[in-house]
């Protein structure tokens, strides 16, 4: 192997992942990952990480990559980041406090207040409510606030010294006009009269942020002057890394949360605010559904059975029939965004003798997550998106049993990608496109391969899951919200 390399990072909730691709072939030639946790001991609903945690993980990834490939050949790099996180900086660009993340539901009151003030839905997970929360709950810190960044923007700042944001990630702030691709002065002023001046300048999808500073290059064993692409939110980068450009194809990313999205040529506005009308990272739009409870719930179930892991639990679930013998799981362990129940709790219904087994509980959890995603797909279709195939990415995509279940629950063909870490791959491909002056689709088309045969919906299971979804939605209405107040 010789020639130019491109590097992509994905700064996620549970870990930072990195991969290096060969510029000529598009092949992934090295990869690394470094895990971390949320800050412990916070009040219920709070979810925070300090940006330094991401930086240490990024450094660890670079050390691992350097042992496998010559990083001096990296021409450009890009960063994908978890969306919505609020990184507050003072006038000297120092971090004021830990970042409140997308999964933080402690700002639900502020989100409701902003929704009323602005006249459109501002989901609890979006950045806007976190800024207002800081203004109300931490006024001394807020008085020092001078810059508002998102996680991937903060990493770009460390790389280049430049404050910047791009439309894809910015469209998840709650103060962005997605149709005009600019910040909304009215939404900003509903939070603070100075907010718009604290937001960084916007850059275009093909505009580099800058180049890697010499001291950062030395720290990361990367070449000084390497180009830094604009990057974007993880979902926008995953769209690049899965070439979800053809009409009718959606991407389902299964991570701590799950997102379902498809590219659109014009904004798709959901009057109820359940589908986020995001911009993508190429100049188009990316209507997106996000459910907060996905693989994180599976890990919770695994922790309940010492000695079991996700593989053994999957094998046990395969022995349980479709519908789980009547056991039904509402998997809303940390509130939910779709449906909009930020204080919801989970529940198990239909529990009878013999059903509290690892296989039953794990299958019921998989089915509960799948039923919620099926409702989301229906919502996307109701807004005019014709979706007949789904490309599956993220950590959960590795589970073939779940992939088949999703084909049955969604009623569409499901196809896995050979490279499941589509966000990190998308960041690397964007870096290549920016460096070479080409489109993301052009560089991605030869770098991305499908993994095996598609999973096709089986008619009998499709019918069974359609009936189960009716039960699931009734259970959500009956149980998810009534117990939320007691759980706070």
Total DSSP E strands? 23
Which whole number gives the mean pLDDT?
94
What count of domains describes the coordinates? 2
Write the CATH homologous superfamily of the largest domain.
ATPase, nucleotide binding domain
Number of helices: 18
Radius of gyration: 22 Å
Q: Terminal Cα separation, in Å?
A: 56 Å
CATH domain topology of the largest domain: Nucleotidyltransferase, domain 5
CATH class term of the largest domain: Alpha Beta
Helix content: 25-40%
Write a structural description.
- This protein is of the alpha/beta class and 488 residues long.
- It has two domains: 5-234, Nucleotidyltransferase, domain 5; 243-416 and 458-488, Nucleotidyltransferase, domain 5 (2-Layer Sandwich).
- It is 37% helix and 19% strand.
- The chain contains 18 helices and 23 strands.
- The strands form seven sheets. Strands 1, 2, 3, 5, 13, 14 and 15 form a seven-stranded mixed sheet that branches. A six-stranded mixed sheet has the order 18-19-17-16-22-23, sandwiched between helices.
- α10 (234-240) crosses α15, α11 (295-303) runs antiparallel to α13 and α13 (358-382) crosses α17 (459-480).
- The longest helix is centred in the C-terminal third of the chain and has 25 residues, at 358-382.
- The protein is globular and about 65 Å long.
- It starts with a strand and ends with a helix.
């Amino acid at each position: 192997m010789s020639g130019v390399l491109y590097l992509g990072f994905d700064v996620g909730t549970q870990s930072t992942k990195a991969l290096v691709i060969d510029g000529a072939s598009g092949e992934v030639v090295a990869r690394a990952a470094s895990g971390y946790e949320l800050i412990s001991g916070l009040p219920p609903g709070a979810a925070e990480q300090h940006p330094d945690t991401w930086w240490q993980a990024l450094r660890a990834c670079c050390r691992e990559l350097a042992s496998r490939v010559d990083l001096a050949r990296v021409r450009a790099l890009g960063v994908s980041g978890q969306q919505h996180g609020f990184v507050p900086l003072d006038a000297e660009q120092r971090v004021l406090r830990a970042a409140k993340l997308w999964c933080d539901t402690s700002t639900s009151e502020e989100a409701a207040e902003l929704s009323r003030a602005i006249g459109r839905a501002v989901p609890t997970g979006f950045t806007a409510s976190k800024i207002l929360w800081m203004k109300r709950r931490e006024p001394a810190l807020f008085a020092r606030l001078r810059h508002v960044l998102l996680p991937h923007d903060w990493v770009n700042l460390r790389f280049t010294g430049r404050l910047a944001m791009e439309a894809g990630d910015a469209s998840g702030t709650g103060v962005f006009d997605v149709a005009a691709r600019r910040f909304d002065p009215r939404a900003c002023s509903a939070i603070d009269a100075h907010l718009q001046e604290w937001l960084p300048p916007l850059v275009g999808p093909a505009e580099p942020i800058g180049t890697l500073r010499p001291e950062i290059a030395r720290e990361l064993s990367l070449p000084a002057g390497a180009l830094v692409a604009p990057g974007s939110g993880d979902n926008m980068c995953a769209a690049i890394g899965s070439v979800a450009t053809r009409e009718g194809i959606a991407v389902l990313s299964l991570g701590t949360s799950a997102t379902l999205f498809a590219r659109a040529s014009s904004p798709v506005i959901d009057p109820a605010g359940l589908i986020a009308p995001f911009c993508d990272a190429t100049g188009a739009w990316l209507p997106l559904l996000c459910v907060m409870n996905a693989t994180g719930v599976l890990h919770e179930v695994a922790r309940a059975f010492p000695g079991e892991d996700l593989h053994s639990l999957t094998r046990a679930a395969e022995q349980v029939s479709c519908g789980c013998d009547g056991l039904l799981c509402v998997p809303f362990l940390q509130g939910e965004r779709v449906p909009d129940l930020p204080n919801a709790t989970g529940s198990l219904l239909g529990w009878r003798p013999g059903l509290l087994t690892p296989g039953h509980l794990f299958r019921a959890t998989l089915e509960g997550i799948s039923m919620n995603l099926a409702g989301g797909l229906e919502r996307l279709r109701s807004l005019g998106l014709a979706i007949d195939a789904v490309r599956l990415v993220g950590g959960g995509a590795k589970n073939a049993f779940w992939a088949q279940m999703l084909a049955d629950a969604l009623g569409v063909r499901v196809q896995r990608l050979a490279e499941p870490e589509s966000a990190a791959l998308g960041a690397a491909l964007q870096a290549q496109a920016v460096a070479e002056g080409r489109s993301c689709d052009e560089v991605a088309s030869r770098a991305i391969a499908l993994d095996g045969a598609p999973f096709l919906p089986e008619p009998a299971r499709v019918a069974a899951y359609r009936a189960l979804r009716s039960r699931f939605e009734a259970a959500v209405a009956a149980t998810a919200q009534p117990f939320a107040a007691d759980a706070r």
